[in-house]
Amino acid sequence: MVARRADAVFFNGKVYTLDAEIGIARAVAISGGEIIAVGSDAEIKGSAPRGCDKYDLGGKVVVPGFNDSHTHFINMGVNMMNVDLMGTASLESAVAKMAAGAKKVAPGEWVIGSGWSESRWGTSRFMDREDLDSCCPDNPAVAHRICMHMCSVNSKAIELLGLTAGTAGVEADAGGRLTGVVKESAVNIVRDATRPDRSKNAKALALATRRAHSLGVTSVQDNGVAEHLSVYQAADRSGKLGVRVSFNVPAEELDSMLRISMSSGLGSDILRIGGVKLFCDGALGARTAALSEPYADDPGNKGMFMQDRDAMDEVISRANQADIQLVVHAIGDMGIEAVISSIEAALSESPRKDHRHRIEHLELPSPQHLRRMRRLRIIASMQPNFVGEWGGTNGMYCARLGEARARRNNPFKEVLASGVRMVFGSDCMPFSPLYGLISAVNAPHEAQRITVDEAMAAYTRDAAYASFEEASKGTISVGKHADMAVLSSDPFADPGALAGTVVLKTVVGGEIVYERPRARG
Question: N or C: which terminus of the chain has fewer CB atoms within 10 Å of its end residue's CB?
């Protein structure tokens, strides 16, 4: 029975609530952006008042709105305005796109591209200085690899930025000439020089939001730079923030957070402070993730730590003591070991019952790591789309790690079996929950493959838990935000249907913010 007057009802659907007490329903009633009833068509539609908006779902599947647990949301929008190199099939096509981008800007202005991956090109060679000199002779140019842990720059950029062979993260050939390949800390030099202004960031947020709506995403957990918070605040004040945002503050701002006693959870149901984001190691694609054994395709290299271990331990200890959630990037097994040990020490000094500290990516955990994570209640925040992009015997993971380690990379099934809470995000590589679901359900290795139900929970119900918001979203339940996605097919009944599934409608706070255009003809 509907407890109070509904202003909208959705009926004649197959509503997968992800609420264990409700299961599958047929209809949902909404009032003031909140779910007020979930049940049968007779219960919900039958008690809908006159003047109430009624939406016939036509038997389609409804799920909670997707919650991407790891994004760079505004940066994604910025990249949409720059040269899009995502999915380029060859080095030559990426170079051609950069050349086209150079024609759209004045001589001397930056040409910025992002999203390339040599693993798609059938080569192990990175884009380099000469490639960019050939297509951007009159402009400083940068092309970011998809992982954003490395980029390529041309000669004009090298000169403008003052990069030398002595600059940390800048690669040089045997003769000492810079190759144009730039990694980790040196990437920050490039980012600082090309940082978009507030106006561009605001446009980027609008673009990213439209993309989110088209993919059924109603919430994001964002790892942005400090100035992004004011962009979100401005959009929120004007009523134009169309997704719910949990913002993870960069570790560089921890002192500022502590000075004003800012902790996780500050804010509203639209925009809130999440945790503090810090890096332990690098990325597998850039060969900078910290490994216990060398890279298979670079035998002298075991990756790197992004900062001094004592400095990382101090940040983790101080944040934990101040009741701030930790959101720590760790990919390689050595990086994961370092983070678990650091969190364990911090919790020993300052025990917390419900800290919900997280390890982001967690690509090469050992069974022992997972046992320790369960005991310490550390959340695994993982990206199944990475497996879709780089998994399999011919993928980048196998090239970097060798077949044995690649089989245990991103072990979603083992994470769940160990009792560790697992949540899913995309890292915007690419930004698409449905692609993430496909990648997890159809993963190439046994340790990775999970069910549709498990993958969906990681992108909805458990994702809300990871940001302390399980009381207000993550399931289609009475009292929660009316955030939902309507799908074109039923992957729960037929996992094979995932590949062709699209989002038909997206609902945020009871308002339909996206409807897929009908096919013509």
Answer: C
